[in-house]
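[Automated response] Your request has been received and processed.

Submitted sequence:
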Amino acid sequence: VQLVESGGGLVQAGGSLGLSCAASGSTSSINIMGWYRQAPGKERELVAGIIRGGGITEYADSVKGRFTISRDKAKNTIYLQMNSLKVGDTAVYYCNTIPPGLWGQGTQVTVSS
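Generated structure:
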């Protein structure tokens, strides 16, 4: 499975950004997808996950109520809508399966104060 993230950028605190992740290859084998992030000097963490059917989602406490994960099965794409962004959300964001396989390039999200 190949994963390509897009949609990152620079935003002020309190603002919003939307990320996309297009999957290609053996996508029929994917059951659970997630968004991860890695901030400078910190370990990579899982922030949101979604079951293949899209009806079940889970979030890390740090983003609950602010981030929304969704998927479009027809397009083999998952999304992460990020609202009320905080400086602490600054990180490189990656999509991957849960548990993760090979990592893509990720997309940088920078939140300024």
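Summary generated for your ticket: The CA atoms of residues 37 and 43 lie 8 Å apart. The mean pLDDT is 93.
If you did not submit this request, please reply to this message.
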